[in-house]
Amino acid sequence: MIAKDDMTVIACNEAAARLYGYNKNEIINKSAAIFRPEEDREMQRERYSRVMGDGESSIHRHLTKDGRMIYVEIVAHDIVFEGRPVRLSMTHDVTEKLEAEAERKIAEADLKNAYDSIRNIAWKQSHLMRSPLANLKGLSNLLKDDPTDKKALSHIRDELERMDNIIIEMAKDASDHTVKNS
Predict the structure, then answer these.
(1) How far apart, in whole angstroms, are the C-alpha atoms of residue 109 and residue 63?
(2) What pLDDT is attached to residue 70?
């Protein structure tokens, strides 16, 4: 429970004190500003000047006693206690949840990149590789009639070179993708 006029902590439970690395007595009568990084304190003062509705929640950066940054979800409600406007709040540490969400987003992006890479390789195999292969099949039929046909042999070498270049490019694409996501 925090006084709205000067942001003094009037009461807290042991769980809240533990969350921040304090004991209950260290927090009582201290400014709630001790829980916020310096650059967030003006926003904190502004929020305390507003009336909070029933169960309004928000996520904020807070500091523990040892200076570690945590993210907390605060569900707050303004009441009058012993004639003084106060803010009741329930604070829940969501640091691990937010970190897991960020890691999940990175993993999703990595999976999308892998999928796009596999799709690209599949397209190259089904389209780019198919063309020289079809040409080679046709040229091989010409060689059945005349195994010494130099023009057909030249085209076969060209198509084999084209296939080799496509395979090299596909291997490079796969290698580049592996390096980027390692």
Answers:
(1) 31
(2) 97
| Rounded Cα–Cα distance for residues 123 and 104 (Å) | 28
Q: Is the pTM of the predicted complex or chain greater than 0.85?
A: no
Residues 48, 6: contact at Cβ < 8 Å?
no
Neighbours of 135 (CB within 10 A): 16
Q: How far apart are CA 63 and CA 22, in angstroms?
A: 11
Strand locations in 18-102 (E): 56-63, 69-81, 84-93
**pLDDT tens for each residue of 74-120:** 999 999 999 999 999 999 999 999 999 999 999 999 999 989 888 88
pLDDT band at 180 (very low <50, low <70, confident <90, very high): low
- Give buried/exposed letters for 87-125 (b at 16+ CB in 10 A, else e): bebebeebeeeeeeeeeeeeeeeeeeeeeebeeeeeebe
Radius of gyration of the chain (CA): 34
The sign of the CA dihedral 161, 162, 165, 166 is negative
The answer to whether the CB of 14 falls within 8 A of the CB of 32 is no
